[in-house]
Amino acid sequence: MTTDTTTRDTAPGAAVPGETVLDARGVTMRFGGLTAVRNVDLTVNAGEIVGLIGPNGAGKTTFFNCLTGLYIPTEGEVRYKGAVLPPKSFKVTAAGIARTFQNIRLFANMTVLENVLVGRHTRTKEGLWSALLRGPGFHRAEAASRARAMELLEFVGLAGKAEHLARNLPYGEQRKLEIARALASEPGLLLLDEPTAGMNPQETRATEELVFAIRDMGIAVLVIEHDMRFIFNLCDRVAVLVQGQKLVEGDSATVQGDERVVAAYLGEPFENDPGVAEVAEVEAAEAQADTVTDAVPGKENDR
Ligand SMILES: Nc1ncnc2c1ncn2[C@@H]1O[C@H](COP(=O)(O)OP(=O)(O)OP(=O)(O)O)[C@@H](O)[C@H]1O
Fold first, then answer.
1. What's a single GO MF annotation on this record (predicted)?
2. Which residue's CA is the closest to the ligand 1 atom numbered 10?
């Protein structure tokens, strides 16, 4: 089965050419004493595929979570098409940002088609009464939803498996199904968290084609990935996160040629190490905690 990513119409949620789709400013996310993301700015424009890379633990997924309402950033602001995002993930999806997850999150015991239909719930206008009464409006909406879901399954190459249980799909196809489900919410921006994790080279190549086809439908894409070949083939721009901070941003050639990026991936020290400030902050917090503990009789052995 091949992915039908040839000619595509513009997606319903497509952005206007030239429009800034995502504008994240000064995003910081702290978990107690740990600053996982520090003052990160990132924009994604209509028609762009932007990559977000960085070593393990750099803060990439945390940043995604801040963009999708899963986390409320400690500081900073995220705008989608000019409007500040609501602090709830379902509202963010309704606004036009869809995502996939690092670990596949399908409904394993539902069919492939049902999984995509679930992804359409933010676009279904029929209310509770209409659903309960199952009037003509409900049936029309349901038929339209199924037709769109089948179109999306065809787009990712899974139409022939619409009635299969999701759990019976091979791994690569489960990832495709996640993408189809995300597209079902008719986004203007799609966030992909490690879409090729666990894939063989052929599946990775097919995913590359799929992402280009999604971009060609007018949906901007922001992608986290550890496969550098995939990222540098695919992306118009790449941002590098190291220890929560954006180290470099530019086109593939600029990023690949940057010594600090090479050093960060090889684990060598580099100039203006973004971890220095954090280490100092943590040491200061620990010193303060020691002072407080030492001042409280009987607390010496609690640590
Ligand atoms: N909910 C949380 N509570 C506390 N710490 C967290 C939480 N989520 C992430 N972290 C920490 O924040 C840092 C960044 O983690 P994150 O998962 O965002 O990195 P990543 O770049 O996506 O890593 P990977 O490439 O391994 O997926 C890590 O030190 C992680 O342990």
1. L-isoleucine transmembrane transporter activity
2. 36
Which residue's CA is the closest to the ligand 1 atom numbered 30? 57
Regarding the domain delimited by 99-186, which CATH topology (the fold level of the hierarchy) does it fall under? Rossmann fold (3.40.50)
Report ipTM (2 d.p.): 0.96
Q: Quick check: 169 pLDDT over 50?
A: yes
Domain with CATH 3.40.50.300 in the chain: 19-96+190-289, 99-186
- pLDDT tens sequence across 3-38: 555 445 677 777 777 789 999 999 999 999 899 999
Provide CATH code, domain 19-96+190-289: 3.40.50.300
Predicted pLDDT of residue 280: 59
- For ligand 1, atom 24: residue with the closest CA: 56
How buried is residue 105: exposed, middle or buried, by Cβ count under 10 Å (0-12/13-18/19+)?
exposed
Please indicate whether residue 34, judged by its CB atom, sits closer than 6 Å to ligand 1.
Answer: yes
pTM of the model: 0.81
